[in-house]
Amino acid sequence: MTQHSESLEDLAIDWLVLLHSGNATAAQRMAFQQWRQSSPAHAAAAAEAEQLWGDLGQTQAAAQHRANAPRTRRWWPALAASLLLALGTGIGWQQWPAWTSDYHTGIGEQRSLTLADGSRVTLNSGTALSLAYSTDERRVILHSGEALFEPLADGQRPFVVQSADQRLQGAANAFSVRRQGSQLTVVVRAGQVQFTGDHAPVLLQADQRLDYQSGQPLLAQQAVDAASLTAWQRGKLIFNGRPLGEVIGELERYQHGRILISDPQLAKLAISGVFDLDDPQGSLKALQQRYPLHVTYLPWLALLH
After folding, report:
1. In terms of Cα–Cα distance, which of 90, 149, 91 is closest to 120?
2. Among 14, 31, 71, 247, which is least packed, fewest CB within 10 Å?
3. 162 sits in which H/E element
4. Could you report the per-residue pLDDT of 71-117, keeping only the tens digit for each?
């Protein structure tokens, strides 16, 4: 483990992800103890990470599901149909219009860009975007996927992110935009962002999220922990009491193939934890160790039951 430009808090979380992955060796456990004892700042970061991990521990819902859920095979017929559908759609399900974009990332890939004006953009997995800079505005077109934007202030040219008919404008701030089909999700990490389109303009503040579905009424902003929701930029996914179906939907974005859940009730299981995006199979292994579920691997498929 090396520090590079990461904060001690991030490094402490990295250590705990490793130690709870089931793959840590005795030497690595000893190295963690040496790391945490190397300074008071290291010890404080380790204690904070351990508190976070404890807060994200096994939930009451998990214990209740373990006690009450019978291990039956009633789900196999529906699962077989899901398998046929998944195999039929194949890798095409995870394709995007990369050939129409200036920059793109593959599945599980992230990429950071510094634009000509000094603004920074971080592309998440399976993302495609194009630039349309002019003398009047700095426009970025998000075709698909998710990106974190950190524009520099420029009084002459506003920074605009366009996705379909929706526009987001901000400067000297940080915000992420995710486009998945006709749904758009905006998370503001710092500053303010003006959201306009086929609806009344909305001003989003730091630690606010807004979900927009094309053709649907605009929903109210939600108060969120934007740092956690954009932790993918640091190679992590953080969940606190989220349904297993939602967690799997996020993990699936970072690997080829499909991850299927056999039982609708299992998909409602509340999940909490910090997952390492560099090790998607390790994330499934961690789920299997901490929650009442099993994982079966097939070519291009992982089945949770």
Report:
1. 149
2. 71
3. strand 159-163
4. 444 444 444 444 444 444 444 444 445 667 899 999 899 999 999 99
Task: Please tell me the distance from the alpha carbon of residue 220 to that of residue 21, in angstroms, as a whole number.
Answer: 38
- Angstrom distance (rounded) from CA 19 to CA 282: 12
**DSSP code, position 207:** T
Integer Cα distance of 236 and 233 in angstroms: 7
8-state DSSP, 90: G
Indicate whether 54 pLDDT > 80.
no
- Domains belonging to the chain, first-starting first, are 8-55 (no CATH), 60-92+235-304 (3.55.50.30), 111-227 (2.60.120.1440)
Q: Which residues contact 225 (CB under 8 A, 6 or more apart)?
A: 207
Q: Tens of pLDDT along 216-240?
A: 888 889 999 999 999 999 999 999 9
Which residue do the tokens 């390790």 mark? 282
The full DSSP string for 257-278 is: SEEEES-HHHHT-EEEEEEETT
- Between CA 217 and CA 113, with CA 95 as vertex, the angle to 5 degrees is 85
> Which residue's structure tokens are 């995006």?
277
pLDDT of 32 reads 86
Q: Give the alpha-carbon dihedral of 170, 176, 179, 184, to 10 degrees.
A: -70
